[in-house]
Structures are given as structure tokens and as C-alpha cells.
């Protein structure tokens, strides 16, 4: 599934700015409830856009050490 985010343009990998909670679960293997715990504790950044909760991709990478 991660390959869907590896769009390439002239050899440059473009990463998403944000991902939804469900996508973060798939990318990291961390459970949905654990992601919400990390959000509550402030260990994982979120952005609200309307009613949607989005996680900045850079925040996921920092969390996983990638």
C-alpha cells in the first residue's frame, strides 16, 4: 500500500503532506486506538480540516524514526 504514495516525477519522490488515521494505521502497523493515544499524549501531531483529522506525514516519520 505504501507504494501508492511513492509518486515519482523525474526521479523525485513526492510524499503526501498529510494522511488520514486509517492510512496511518496501514502505513505504520500501529493500531487505531494506539494512534489516538499518541495523539492525546501529544506524541503525534494532527491537523483538523473540517471534520477530518489528518496526521502530517513528517510527524509519522518522526514517530517511527524513518
- Main β-sheet description: 3 strands, antiparallel
Secondary-structure-based class equals: alpha+beta
> Which blocks of ≥5 consecutive residues have pLDDT under 50?
none
User: Helicity level, as a percent range?
Assistant: 25-40%
Rounded to the nearest angstrom, the distance between the terminal CA atoms is 17 Å
Series of H and E elements: EEEHHEEH
Q: Tell me, what's the shape?
A: globular
Strand order of the largest sheet: 3-5-4
Count of runs of 4 or more consecutive helical residues: 3
Mean pLDDT: 88
Walk me through what this model shows:
The chain has 66 residues and is α+β, with helices and mostly antiparallel strands. 39% of the residues lie in helices and 26% in strands. It has helices spanning 21-28, 32-41, 57-64, and strands at residues 7-9, 12-14, 18-20, 47-49, 52-56. The chain has a three-stranded antiparallel sheet with strand order 3-5-4. It has a two-stranded antiparallel sheet with strand order 1-2. Strand 1 and strand 2 (12-14) form a beta hairpin.
Tags for this model:
single chain; 66 residues; alpha+beta; 3-stranded antiparallel β-sheet; two-stranded antiparallel sheet; 3 helices; 26% strand; globular
Question: Quick recap of the structure?
Answer:
This protein has 66 residues and is of the alpha+beta class. The chain has three helices and five strands. The protein is globular.
What secondary-structure arrangement, pairings included, does this model have?
Layout (H helix, E strand, L loop, with lengths): L6 E3 L2 E3 L3 E3 H8 L3 H10 L5 E3 L2 E5 H8 L2
Antiparallel strand pairs: 1-2, 3-5, 4-5
